[in-house]
Amino acid sequence: MNRLLKLATGVVAVLALHGCASYKPVPDGYTGPVAEVADSGGRIDGMKSFAFALMDVDGNNVDNSFRASASASYGQGFALTTHYVVRSVTATPMKVRLKGSHMTGAPIHAIASQMAGTFFSVDGVVDFKPAPGGKYIVKGELKKGASSVWIEDRATGLAVTEKIVEK
Q1: Which domain holds residue 140?
Q2: Is residue 111 part of a domain?
């Protein structure tokens, strides 16, 4: 029985770690053109911030600001340490999942903010065609009943994807 418990624990640990692994949007050995996509956001106070992030590329999880901030804030109680991620992607057409949301240092703070009507979130999938050498940023707005998120060209400030709007 003890051996079975150890095996089950090992399997669960491997699966948990696999679930946290991030897909590399630029595979090892890739020599084609790339672009850069940065997450963005801001601080509300020491316990609450907001972020607009690239979450998935073609259905595969990528490093993002929500995960980076949660990791940086682990064990700090209500304190929130934010990290905004910048990553390279292949300069090829892709489907991306974007997310805009408030974030907090402690889950109970997020629940309290949701109950108070001061925690907003929006996400969805859009087509994205980055240009070789392009520099992009995920932007958005968080408003009651009207939150949205999109990608824009850093040089022009123009949206390059459709806006995902809260429904």
Answers
A1: 25-165
A2: yes
